Amino acid sequence: MKISTQWVDGLCFVGSTEQGHSVVMDGAAPEAGKRGISPMAMLLLGVAGCSSIDVVSIAQKQRQDVRDCICEVTAKRADSIPKVFTEIHLHFKVIGRDLDQSAVAKAVQLSAEKYCSASIMLGKAAAISHSFECIEG
């Protein structure tokens, strides 16, 4: 895997992957006209995306009729520099038809403990927890 960042100006950078996908990142304060997502928020998005992919994929393999999956992440950071994440919580809202709670629970557990590289990696530095709810829809 290879990525790059290129400075735009101020604290704004464009990150690009070798496949040509790009994202704007900005370390400026919101009142300073921030134009992109912060790098620390990008880490949380990565965890949410990685784990959500697992949950949906595993649930579908269990023949669950998943229609949508929303992952809400809350996190706490250390007060002193480096302001690392100390706690991260992922809450999944799995929307579907006739979902089996135990199947969804197993999908979340497998993501957390076995498959989500991002979550498992960050779990070495922060306390990571998971919860879910099944929503008929």
From TrEMBL:
Gene3D superfamilies: 2.20.25.10, 3.30.300.20. SUPFAM superfamilies: OsmC-like. InterPro entries: KH_dom-like_a/b (IPR015946), OsmC/Ohr_fam (IPR003718), OsmC/Ohrsf (IPR036102). It comes from the Bacteria. PANTHER family: PROTEIN YHFA. This is OsmC family protein.
